[in-house]
Design a protein that fits this description.
This protein has about 180 residues and is α+β, with helices and mostly antiparallel strands. It has one domain: Porin. The chain contains three helices and eight strands, in the order H-E-H-E-E-H-E-E-E-E-E. The chain has an eight-stranded antiparallel barrel with strand order 1-2-3-4-5-6-7-8.
Length: about 180
């Protein structure tokens, strides 16, 4: 019985170490995520919380503390009928390139993230608008065998081209995702 347990433990350990080694050598990772989107600044005055979905490509060796991640996201925020008198939604499609800086850890790894993006927003029947933006945030990565999950909070500031110059657009997404 001891031999069977020892053999099982040895095979399990070799499998986990082998998968970890393969994962550490893979420079490209794919991910899916989603969560809550909260409008901030002037957007928060007329919109309610919504949702978002996201696909990601991560670049970088697992052993290095700095990685790159390209995100493509879709946000949907509902209009507050009391203020805007409309049941239209604000839809924001964004593409961002972010740096992810790992802060160490085993199993649960905190990280900082930030980057630049391009955002296409459309409200109801109005024309779509393209704007530049910046984002930054914090997250926790939970390492699993062959993949990882993460939970992160970001602040996305979209620089809206407004002739009056007094409109501010920002979204705070809380995201849960998985990277393969």
């Amino acid at each position: 019985m001891k031999r069977v347990v020892s053999l099982f433990a040895a095979v399990t350990m070799a499998t986990v170490m082998g998968v970890s080694a393969v994962e550490a050598q893979s420079p490209i990772r794919f991910g899916l995520a989603g969560g809550l989107s909260m409008p901030q600044s002037d957007l928060g005055d007329g919109l309610e919380n919504g949702f978002h979905g996201q696909v990601m490509l991560g670049f970088g060796m697992m052993a290095l503390p700095v990685k790159l991640r390209a995100d493509l996201s879709y946000h949907s925020l509902g209009a507050d009928e009391g203020i805007l008198g409309s049941d239209d939604d604000l839809r924001v499609i964004g593409g961002a390139l972010n740096a992810i800086v790992g802060m160490g850890g085993i199993g649960v790894k905190p990280y900082l993230t930030g980057g630049v993006g391009f955002y296409n927003s459309k409200f109801g029947d109005f024309d779509a608008e393209n704007d530049f933006g910046l984002n930054g945030g914090v997250g926790l990565e939970f390492s699993l065998t062959g993949m990882s999950t993460f939970l992160e909070v970001r602040y996305i500031k979209i620089f809206v081209d407004d002739e009056g110059g007094d409109f501010s657009a920002a979204i705070v997404p809380i995201t849960f995702g998985i990277m393969f």
